[in-house]
Structure formats: structure tokens, C-alpha cells
TrEMBL record:
Signal peptide: none annotated. Keywords: FAD, Flavoprotein, Oxidoreductase, Transit peptide. It comes from Streptomyces lonarensis. The lineage of its organism: Bacteria, Bacillati, Actinomycetota, Actinomycetes, Kitasatosporales. The keyword rRNA processing does not apply. This is Acyl-CoA dehydrogenase.
Amino acid sequence: MTATPTPPDRPTADRDPAPLADPLDLLDISWTLSQEERDIQQTVARFLADHARPYLGEWFETGRFPRELVPELGRLGLLGMHLEGYGCAGAGAVAYGLACLELEAADSGLRSFASVQGSLSMYSIHRYGSEEQRTRWLPRLAAGEAVGCFALTEPDHGSDPAAMRTRAVRSGGDWVLNGTKTWITNGSIADVATVWARTEEGVRGFLVERGTPGFTSHDIGHKLSLRASVTSELVLDDVRLPDAARLPEANGLRAPLSCLGEARFGIVFGALGAARDSLRTTLEYADTRTQFDRPISGFQLTQRKFADMALALNSSMLLALHLGRLKEAGRLRPEQVSAGKLNNVRQAIAIARECRTVLGANGVGLEYSPLRHANNLESVLTYEGTEEIHTLVVGQALTGRSAYR
């Protein structure tokens, strides 16, 4: 469903506008949102304030993903919320984006979980699965009763999935899969994995359940980024699957790439949550941190940093909102999603880093969020298409020439 904005009445000519409710919403972008969209955003923010924010530093430091929150996210309707039917909320693209923004304002690991669950695992089943597959998995995934993952990336093939080595070979009425997937979010906790493999007919997708003989996983440790997130390697060693495990509508590489487009859209909004939280944290700090007998928020150089960051945040939010409305109208193109991810993640990581400079030495601790966000955004800059790949996608849209094929 698509929410139609219902803004409040405009101020009359002889009455000054009211002060901004949120100084970070410098351009009053929230005025353009529908009441439903604002309600969804506020509900997610309140939930995270109660159930996540008190523990974010601990989860990052210990490298723990809060699995116990998954059913709660399901009860809120956040898992696959932009999909229709099968227990999914059927929310509009902007509402989904705003939920991603609030999740990433807490931690990128939470938004990554929701993106993989809804926009990769669930979307692949919703769009390319059989009715039996949809009925079996989507209600459980939407409720948070089951966890899904999406296995495309391989140790030697990230940006070039067409070169994947994982293969699926027919054996009677079954398929036998062999290969290795890596950097798989949710991998070791997933009840079902959407695994992409080469066949004689081209790339195909398969649903591989936890516990299937020959299917194993192990977590990737020693991470400096996305620590509050499960990242795994998956190994398929003569994994035998019935043909009923194949996604019947997924024919060719276009299928997994379309799923990635769904996840990238969430990042366009999500990254701005990390930027907004970094800026809000730093504004509060600067107003109480005193040097030379006055708060550092009153110094010209600090105010210039804040002004530049607020402009970058608000202009990026306008871009995200525009892309959301295009998606709701069925007009969003892949190169436009690439432009959104490229710009907004660049701006978000720059804001997080700049905020750390205002915090000074205090900014290197987990008491303040900007450096944690900056570290997480290093992963966001890379996954679902690297900065370089999205640059070339935009370049191809402008010139009509592919620079990487």
C-alpha cells in the first residue's frame, strides 16, 4: 500500500512558522510525510529506545547479535513489511525506508538483519518461489519465528556474481549442490538459506534448510565492523535437494540482482539513520562540553561542521524520500537506487567521521555512537554493491557504455 502525505495546514502569510520540532530536520522534511508514515517511524524509534539503545555498546564490544529481538521485530510487523500477503504488513516504500532509518540509527547490524530477512530472503521467496514455498516460509519469517539468509557472494567472487563457482547438477529428479558462500549475514542462525548456483540452464536459486546433510556454516570472527551482526561462511558439500526446493520463477542472474536492488533501497534510508544519530549525539555533547570557558557548540569552526553535516543529511534525506515515492509509483530504476546508495552512504560515513572529530578523544569510546557508526558504515559502503560498482552503474547510465564488462 502507498501512503499519501497529509501535511498540516500551511502557516498564513501574517504568522511566522513554528520553530522546528527537530533541529536536525532542518528542511522540515517530516512535514511531507503521511501520519501513518510518521507513526511507523515513531513506533520503531520508541521500541529501539526501550529494547536496544541501552545495550548497543555492549553488543558491539562483545560481538553479539540480539537474537531475542527477532520475534519482537516480527510482532511490530517490520520483517518483510513492504511485501503483500502471507502475514506481511504491505507497507509503502517510504514507510519501510523510515523503519530502516530508525533501525540503523540504533545500529547497522539491526537494519542489516531486517534487510536480509525481508528484502533478500523473504523477497526472493515472495517474488520467485512457488505457492507452496511462500505458504510454508513467509508467515514464519514475517513473524520472526524463522530466520532467513541470502547466499550469493563467494570467496573469490563478490562484485562479479556471474563468475560464481557454486554449481547445482541434476541427479535424477534431484539437484546436487557444491560450493562455498561467504560474508553471509544471518548465515549460521538461518533456518532457510536462499542459495544461488550455476546450472546448465543458467543461474538458479534454491531453498536450503538448516540441517540438510552436507550443508554447514561457521561464523566469521575478528570483525572491526558490523560486530552486532552474524556473518558466516556457508559450505555445500554434495547437498542433495528435491526439485521442489528450487525457486521456479528464478531464471538467470537477473533474479538475485533484483533482490539486491530491494536491499539497496533500504540502505538508502538506513545509512541516514546512522548519520542522524551521530549528529544528534555530537550536538548534545558539544552543548555541554566546555573549553575556553564556553560550550564548544558556540565556536565558529564547530558550527560550520554542524551546518555542513546538517545540509548533507537533509539533502540526502530528500533524495531518499524522492526515490521512495518513485518506488511507490513503480518508476524506480536500478541506476537510481545505485545513485541513492552511492550518495547516501558516502554522506553518512563522512558525517560519522566528522562527528568523531568534534568529540575529540572521547569519540573513540563506545559511550558515544559516531565511531561505532563509522565502523559499521565501512561494511555498508561495501556490501550490496561496492562504492566502485555503483559509481560505474551510474557512469553507464550516463554514457551508455559499460566499464566493467
